Amino acid sequence: MVSRLDATEKALALIDELEEKHGPLMFYQAGGCCEGTQPQCFEKGGFYPRMNDVLIGHIKGYEFWIDRDLFEYWQYSHFMLDVLDGFGPGGFSLETPLGKTFKVHYRLFNEEELKDLEPVERNA
Q: According to the lineage, what is the superkingdom (predicted)?
């Protein structure tokens, strides 16, 4: 099956650092407004996905949820989690005090990949 989600080495290293300090983690990417559209990292259980939000995969075993409307727009895209220096628009994410921000790079799946995508899970 083709994964909808991967992470760069830089993102994985930051996740290790955050995990050591905060314990189990989770990710949520909102559709805009106050949270912006960058993924946010929380302590596991520190954010509750809304009804019909979509679990698109796991990074290092940690759930990566996205806003239900955002999924409708990006459902044919691969998400690559990366990290940049600087502050993202949300400010609530665990990496913010470190002067870092998570960022997703997108690319469209090709026809072959679309035939074998990992299924998603919707929050009930």
A: Bacteria
* In the predicted structure, residue 36 carries a pLDDT above the cut 80: no
Separation of alpha carbons 72 and 74, rounded Å: 6
User: Which CATH entry fits the domain spanning 5-122: 2.40.230, 2.40.50, 2.60.40, 2.60.300?
Assistant: 2.60.300
Which residues are 104's β-sheet partners?
A: 81
Q: 54-92 burial string, b = 16+ CB within 10 Å, else e?
A: bbbbebeebbbbbbbebbeebeebbbebbbeeeebebee
Q: Where are the domains positioned within the chain?
A: 5-122
> Tens digit of pLDDT for each residue in 6-34?
999 999 999 999 999 999 999 999 876 65
State the residue for tokens 């912006």: 36
